[in-house]
Amino acid sequence: RADYQGFCFGLQRILWGLFKKLVIADRMAPIIQAIWSGEFYGICVLVGVLGYAWQLYMDFSGCMDVVLGASELFGIRLPENFNTPLYATSLSEYWRRWHITLGVWFKTYVFYPVSVSGIVKKWNKFGKKHCGKYLTKLGISALCLFPVWICNGLWHGARWSYIFYGMYYFVILLAEVAVEPLRDNILEICHLDKNALPYRILQTLKTWLIIFTGELFFRANGLQAGMSMFFSIFKGNNIQSFENIVARQKEIRGILMSVGLDRLDYFVVIAGCIVVAVVGIIKEKKLLGEEGIRKLWLPVRWTLYYALIFAVLILGAYGMGYQQVDMIYAGF
């Protein structure tokens, strides 16, 4: 049933989604397009890779916020599709937080049927008798994960770069399973707590590195182009003197300013990303509980509402001088 509370919550979600899509993702589109279509190397490619990963998250999660908010207006509760994925401390946790509905579909219709299939049962029986517990578990994981990730790659399109993207995550997730006993032993010997903040930060940074590398191949125009861009990151970063550092900084600044964005655009993008990161921390730590922003003092709540409304109206990348940017995931 539609109700007043759901209607208000739906409008909040739509507004938050428009902020992520129009203010951040669409404003980043020109620089991402320029870097991927040009002959850049070194730090510029690295900026493009980091920017695309952030743009993809803002674009996709922003559109999902609009979809969830629009359905909420009519009392229809759709499942969440994102759960602060960039705060994940492992790749498996990241994929439980990113594109949740697709992950659940693959788990239900691919992973589970394979895990109870005859070939897995035969390997389990054979492995326990001849290979030991560790290799048996590793073999079962490989048999179950491979079809999931080959299907995940093909779901995005029939291109070698998408197949490579799926196999890239298959290999790394299987490696996580393979090194898990060794990692646990090292942590126990060194008396390290997996829940300690420094360890979680290192794990999160490691996860980011894997994700950003995967997004490079995902965005590239073909597998060969992805390989070329990956190796181009390590070119042109050989700094031999202070003069070279200054010259390199001027070159990068000139490139970033030549794609149609000015300093104000970059400021808006950075400020918007900080806002989204702060909201993500509040959500991750459950600082506002289940009610979220609705539990705040009325003047504070409406100040935030108006700040978002005017941010979308004034800072949104639309209208004269802007090219409309389609939803990235509409292409799959």
Care to describe what's here?
By secondary structure, the chain is mainly α. It contains twelve helices and no strands. Helix 1 (4-37) packs across helix 11 and helix 5 (118-130) runs antiparallel to helix 6. It is globular, with a radius of gyration of 23 Å.
Give a summary of the structure in a few sentences.
The chain is built from 12 helices and no strands. It is mainly alpha-helical and 332 residues long. 21% of the residues are buried.
Mind sketching the topology for me?
Layout lengths: L3 H34 L5 H31 L17 H7 L2 H16 L2 H13 L1 H25 L3 H30 L7 H23 L3 H10 L9 H16 L5 H22 L13 H18 L17
Helix pairs in contact: 1-2, 1-11, 1-12, 2-8, 4-6, 5-6, 6-7, 7-8, 8-9
Beta-strand content: under 5%
Taking all residues together, what is the mean pLDDT? 87
Please count the helical segments: 12
Order of helices and strands: HHHHHHHHHHHH
- Radius of gyration (CA) equals 23 Å
The SS-based structural class is mainly alpha
- Helical content, roughly? over 70%
What are the defining features of this structure?
globular; 332 residues; 0% strand; mainly alpha; 12 helices
